[in-house]
Amino acid sequence: MSVASVRKRKEAGLAYLLLLPALVIFGVFTFYPFLKNFKLALYQNPPYPGLPAKYVGLSQVTSVLGSSAFHQSLISTFLFVIMVVPTGLIGGLLLALAAHKEIKGMAVFRTIFSSTVVSSVAVAAVVFGTLMNPIVGLLPWLGLNVHPSILQSPTWALPAVAMIAIWQFLGLSFIIMTAGLQSLPEEVLEAARLDGAGTWTMFWRVTVPLLSPTLFFGLVIGTIYAFQSFGQIDILIGPANSAFTHTNVLLYYVYQALSIQNDPGLAAVLSIVLFAILLVVTLLQMRFLEKRVHYASN
Amino acid sequence: MPATDTVTTATPATPSAPQPRRRHRRARLVLRYLLLSIGAVIILFPLYMAIVNSLLEPSQISHQPPPLFPTHPQWHTYPTAWTTGHLAVYLRNSAIQTFIIVAGQLITSILAAYAFAFLEFPFKRTLFVVFLMTLMIPFEVTVATNLSTVSSLGWFNTFPGLTVPFLATGFGTFLLRQAFLQIPTDLKEAAQLDGYGNFRFLWSVAIPLARPAIAALGVFSFLAAWNQYLWPLLVTGNDNSIRTVQIGLKQLLNTQLDQINVSLAGTIIAIVPLIILLIIFQKQLVRSLTAGAVK
Question: Class for domain B82-289, per CATH?
């Protein structure tokens, strides 16, 4: 064997060795459990613990997908996403526009605006949950004293947890939008200004199209963030609450199926649905993004 | 809006009317500060109220209008939260869990990124796609099986159970590979001529040059690990011994229903490490969070 080919083999061996730790983790904790969902979905859990799970084919999938609990969960999830994502993105963009100028004290404002990014879901839930607690004087004083209290109300509980998620998402949204604004090509903005574009025209006809890659990136990240939110609901609402069926978002349903109902089959079906939705959302947004980017560069 | 201000600055003020122009600009500046302050108040109000309420007596909390300043701050709520909420144990657990995950992710990502950036081997592209595919599978859809895997390994309620599933990251590998690819190939060749092996090159050239990206990944991993909620909730069961602070807060809220001030004090304690992190590492954090936002 030539020296060169020996060296090549050694290099390949080293490369596989370097990749091995990550590949083992991904294999065991990402790909295997992901694929296992498709098998688990076909097995129904035994009515009594200790018995083996029974193969039932697609009947479990169809019964879950046809159940009213699943439909309610799907509706709550989409309502939650629709409440959180656009508001969070527009709020972040407004903050970023206000902070996009080097004036005195701006560093402090930027730190404040990004600060919610470090707040965990538990912190946000406790902070807002206590403010929304009817024992606390804030809401009654503002005249927002509904019965049952906000977090017990089938109507208001979901918007209330959505508000917490929006507040938490604002920091990330602000950071993304700021980075986007800072990357806008100065020449194009300058040219538009010299052409005499007014503020409003400038914003809608120049800034927004140029910013569209950032807006879509934010949309993808925000949508994924919203689908993954459930901590607020777990901490503030929980299964015993009267508002529970109206706030049982998909991920919380998965958690419950696992830890309360002890039903891996149900959890697997729900996981596949969650994955499918996120995949479709991401692919749609990627296609759309590609088009917009072309449009912007033309 | 930024565009407006620069329009004003770009158009030179005509000598005939300098006064109104300047006053106009001042008004805009004031307006901008006003908008910024409104934004800051919206963001900070909940946290501010949390701090105020954590220092009130329980009887004052239900007052209308709510006190906006603690006139007789009850500092004892903080030691109470610390002891009744077992915060020392939970913070220690969170610190250990976070340290293991951050160190593990940095090591596995640096090694894998080095292979992808500097080495040639069969199936390189395929394996890179495999790494990227992990980004498409959210952790949430793997919890069902991971829970039984961890239990069958005897890792339920242990630090390995809490951390091992997170010791590799497709995002981190991608980020560091990009950083390594910025290093000129001449440098690798020169190092080889000087007799540097791969590990020496990695340790004394590649890692130092990619330090900004590594720092960004470190801060990002720290934030994600510290704030984890779903997995610690599932894997720590009803045992206090390895429960993290996030789950501890849920417990504190549930056990201290009549003592909102104590729950809030515990929450403030839990967020302090992250506020410090934000202030020190803001730049790195922003860099990691926007990786991919701007091409």
Answer: mainly alpha
Residue A161 lies in a domain: yes
CB A26 within 8 A of CB B168: yes
The confidence band for A103, taking pLDDT boundaries of 50, 70 and 90, is confident
By residue range, what is the domain housing residue A36?
3-40
Distance CA A171, CA A173 (A): 5
Please name the member of B46, B148, B198 whose beta carbon is closest to the beta carbon of A131. B46
Question: Tell me, what DSSP letter sits at residue A43?
Answer: E
Supply the pTM of this predicted model: 0.86
C-alpha B39, offset from chain centre: 22
Record: contact B145-A193, CB cut-off 8 A: no
Tokens of B293: 């936002």
Contact B168 A21 (CB under 8 A): yes
Cα of B65 to nearest chain A Cα, Å: 6
Same domain assignment for residues A109 and A251? yes
Interface of B with A in 88-107 (CB under 8 A): 107
Looking at the fold, whether A204 and A118 belong to one and the same domain comes out as yes
Interchain CB distance below 8 Å, B3 and A121: no
Q: Identify whether the C-beta of residue A28 lies closer than 8 Å to the C-beta of residue B149.
A: yes
pLDDT tens profile B18-42: 566 777 888 888 888 998 999 999 9
CA distance B19 to chain A (A): 21
Please report the pLDDT score of residue B1 as a whole number. Answer: 38
* Residues 34-63, chain B, touching A (beta carbon < 8 A): 35-36, 39-40, 43-44, 46-47, 49-50, 53, 61-63
Domain locations in chain B as residue ranges:
2-74, 82-289
Total number of domains in chain A: 2
ipTM, two decimals, is 0.84
The CA distance from A86 to B102, in Å, is: 32
Tell me, rounded to whole angstroms, the distance of Cα A250 from its chain centroid: 12
B11: left (phi over 0), alpha (psi -120 to 50) or beta: beta
Q: What secondary structure letter does DSSP report for A44?
A: E
Residue A211: count of CB within 10 angstroms of its CB? 20
Question: Where in A169-293 does DSSP place strands (E)?
Answer: none
Same domain, A180 and A256: yes
B66 in Cβ contact with A132 (< 8 Å): no
Residue A109 falls inside a structural domain: yes
Contact B2/A179, CB-based, under 8 Å?
no
In chain B, what is the straight-line distance between the N-terminal and C-terminal CA atoms, in Å? 24
* Residues 6+ away with beta carbon under 8 Å from B44: A112, A115
Shared domain for A149 and A12, answered yes or no, is no
- Residue A241 CA, distance from chain mean position: 24
Nearest CB to B146 within list A29, A101, A170: A29
DSSP H or E run through A55: strand A54-55
